[in-house]
Amino acid sequence: MTDLRLEREFPVTPERLFAWISDTEKLLQWWGPEGMTVPEHTLNFHQEGPWSTVMTNADGDRYHVSGVVTHVRPPQSIGFTWGWHDETGARGHESHVTLTVEAVDAGARLVIDHRNLDSSEQAAGHQKGWESTLRKLASKIQ
């Protein structure tokens, strides 16, 4: 198993950053890599329970991912499982993501801790996706 950790600082309060990672309306503005939209979702990071999204790129390709919110601790962290679905709808390997908000001198830091990825190749793909997603968040939150 492989783990991935990314950090990004934002010039906002920890409470404001937490709102951007937990409020569905705000979350949908940055969820998914650049160029992707989210036409279908059951995102609710205010409570434990199931979630899913379908992300679509400009070519119309659909990417379905789902999981279960495992914890919500405002304004510090949200944890959830993550599993991609294949073209038949079967859910693949399950990993776990924790989004943690920390106060820093310049505002707040978001830590993405994505654990139990099944290969270094999968971790590299997720790193690319999360970095793109963080750029979207930065463009919305500032």
From TrEMBL:
Q: Fetch the InterPro entries from UniProt.
A: ASHA1/2-like_C, START-like_dom_sf
Ranges for domain Activator of Hsp90 ATPase homologue 1/2-like C-terminal come to: 12-139
Q: Give one Pfam family.
A: AHSA1
Q: Which family does it belong to?
A: Belongs to the AHA1 family.
Q: What is this protein called?
A: Activator of Hsp90 ATPase 1 family protein
According to its UniProt entry, this protein's organism is Phaeobacter inhibens
